[in-house]
Amino acid sequence: MWVPVRRRPGQDFAATTGEKAAVVLFCGANTDPSGRTFSGPGDFNTQLTTWLAVANRRVHRTLQTRPTERWEADRVGMLTLPPVDPPAWWRMQTRIGRDHYVRVDTNDYSVHPDAIGRIVTVLTDNDEVLALAPGGVIVARHPRCWARHQTITDPDHAEAGKTMRGQLQHHQQAARQATAQDPSGPLVEVEQRELGSYDRMFTVIEGGGDREAG
After folding, report:
1. Is the dihedral of CA 151, 155, 158, 162 positive or negative?
2. Of 10, 18, 67, 105, which is most buried by a Cβ count within 10 Å?
3. What Å distances lie between residue 167 and 43, 80, 161, 177, CA to CA?
4. How far apart are the C-alpha atoms of 158 and 111, rounded to whole Å?
5. pLDDT band at residue 133, thresholds of 50, 70 and 90?
């Protein structure tokens, strides 16, 4: 599986040779705006497979041989594959905020609002975005979007979020009504002092200074 990545202007591919160079040059030359366009990884791989069927039968200018004639020799020099496949997922962990979305690349994917405030594990491959709450509970599953700066919302997540916001507003309104019905709250007795004491303390009337009325 190849994923198209736009090359930098002037990037040099001369260091690569053989069938690898053919693939790299296809990826570089045909992702320019003036060349081929791809709707996603699946379309890219379909076009690449069709193109390789022709390119691998051509005589390579440097090697003076066809890539198909080099495969067996290359396989002899390759290491054997590990018994367990390497993980295909790109993984990260993040805490879900009040908007209950996670960002992958430049796109935002909705998460079920039950996960708000919790740390989730986000797994991403070429086809899917998956979010797991503690215990492995799936709180989001979306097809991977290859456009940029998109917001992808699961209708179930949106409906659950709307319901939870309604419940919160109901509780807040009930609390405000309870406060309005009894604005004074519980009564607390506070010691009261004879007002003349303050006048005497500041020598406003006779007998002031540091002395107070008995």
Report:
1. positive
2. 67
3. 45, 58, 10, 15
4. 9
5. very high
